[in-house]
Each structure stands twice: as C-alpha cells, then as structure tokens.
Amino acid sequence: MPVIKAKYYGFCEGVKLAIEKTNEALRGNKKKIFVIGPLIHNPQVIEKLSKQGLITVEDINKIDKDGILIVRSHGLPEPKIKKAIEMGIQIIDSTCYKVKNLHKLSKQLVKDGYQLVLIGDHDHAEVKAIKESINDNVVVISSPDEVDKTKFKRKVGIVVQTTQSENNFYKIVNRVLKQVEELRVFNTICKASILRQNAAYELSKNVELMIVIGGKESANTKRLAGICKENTQTHHIETKEELKDSWFKGKKNIGITAGASTPDWIIEEVQKRVEEIMARRLLFHSSQSKFPHS
C-alpha cells in the first residue's frame, strides 16, 4: 500500500526567500515587524511567525513609523510602498522575483501603448497589486468565457498571474488572438508552478486517491487540487487533523502533493498519518482474512 509523493511539491524559491527574510528580521531587530496581508497563504506558517512577533495588518496606517514593513511574496502596489517610504518606515522587500518580473512587463506593455490583459484570479493579491500599481489600467480575465464579454483595443498585451494553470492560459490566449489585430504575449507563469502542476497531474493518473496539502486560500494549492480531481478522488487539506479514515477504504495506492507555501514539517506529518491509517487498514484486513466469520 504505497504512499507516493509527487516529483515536485511544497515550498518554491519565492516563499523560501520570504520566510528567510522574515525570520532574519524577527531575530535581528528590536523594532516591531509588520506585513500587509498574509506573508504567504499558509495559516500554520503565519501562526508560527506571529508567535515569533510578526504583526499582520491590512492598513498601512496601522504600522508604527519606527517599525519595519516586510513586503510579502505576492508583492504590494507601488502606491503603498511609496507611502511607507514617505512615512519613514523601513522596508524589507521579499517580493518573489517572478512577481517583480510580472510588474515590470505589465508597466512596459502599458508604456508601449498596449491594452494590458492580465490572466488571473480577480481577487488574488498578485492581481490586485498589479491593478493598483498601474491605476486600474488593466483588464483581468480569469476564464475563456470572459474573453467574449471583453472589449479589446487594436493592440493588446497579455501577462499572466504566476500561479495560473498553463491550460487556462493557452485557452484564453487563443480566444483573444481571434479578436485583435496585434497581440504580444508573455508567459509569466512561474516554472515552479508548472512543474508542480504537471507532477500532480501525472501522479493523480496512477493512484486511487490524492491528498493535496496547503492553505485553503492558496490559489496554487486549489489549482493543484482541481488538476488532480480530473483524474482521481482528491481531498484538499491543511493539516493531518483533517484526514478521515473513510477516504482510504478500498484504496491501495495514495498520492500526496503540496502547494508552494506548504512547509516540509506539515507534509511530513500528513504523510506519517496517511501511512498509519493505511497500516491500520492492512492489519484489519489481514486479521479478517485469518479469522473469517463463520
């Protein structure tokens, strides 16, 4: 009864960087450390960092002027960063370099006269930061169906949220291509996201049950769960406590993957619990076969 982990899973480089910079700041400063919005989309990691002193706020005015602001991995809108600088707040930038590149390309397309189309989730922090940074001069499209409801200009430039699925990206680009005269496209999906999505898809084709571990608000984890559901029974959980014995009834092989903001310690706890459940079921069936009902 094997438990198989996907080839690629868990922390990406951008998340590792954000956590390293935050831990370093918490260890080396007497000043209060703030972040606007969750540093990463994982409640268990945030809780751990909060106990060490990280303060999460939603409003920049809640930050002490002699405090330190950590810019989270999803980035922040430029107006907020400028305001923090004007307030005299020290800034530690932990924005993922892939997200920084997305901002750079978005601004360049607008500067070059293209109507900017951002393929992404309307409420995602990354998308909101782009919109606010370029004064809402952007059309956000989350699905192919939205393309037909959009009025395009002659010149269109496309970028994409770094954690989007390639499949959704290609479908939308192909539809837009049929409606515009000039189109520039930058595939800004993070390679780590693509590797995790492909690995999850391949594994889910070969197991009877997939356990996807990560924050319930994590876009990339929800996307992994959606991909796995195309092939097999799938459950999206945050911690080992959510696992149910009934899921494993009659299952012989189990797959595990995890979102880009899921730490190794949570993944290891889940894997251990899954193995315990499978071992119990094996022992039960073994005893049943030795002592059949008369």
From TrEMBL:
Keywords: 4Fe-4S, Iron, Iron-sulfur, Isoprene biosynthesis, Metal-binding, Oxidoreductase. Pathway: Isoprenoid biosynthesis; isopentenyl diphosphate biosynthesis via DXP pathway; isopentenyl diphosphate from 1-deoxy-D-xylulose 5-phosphate: step 6/6; Isoprenoid biosynthesis; dimethylallyl diphosphate biosynthesis; dimethylallyl diphosphate from (2E)-4-hydroxy-3-methylbutenyl diphosphate: step 1/1. CDD domains: lytB_ispH. Dimethylallyl diphosphate binds at H41, H74, H124, S218, N220, S261. PANTHER family: 4-HYDROXY-3-METHYLBUT-2-ENYL DIPHOSPHATE REDUCTASE (PTHR30426). Belongs to the IspH family. Catalyzes the conversion of 1-hydroxy-2-methyl-2-(E)-butenyl 4-diphosphate (HMBPP) into a mixture of isopentenyl diphosphate (IPP) and dimethylallyl diphosphate (DMAPP). Acts in the terminal step of the DOXP/MEP pathway for isoprenoid precursor biosynthesis. This is 4-hydroxy-3-methylbut-2-enyl diphosphate reductase. The lineage of its organism: Bacteria, Candidatus Schekmaniibacteriota.
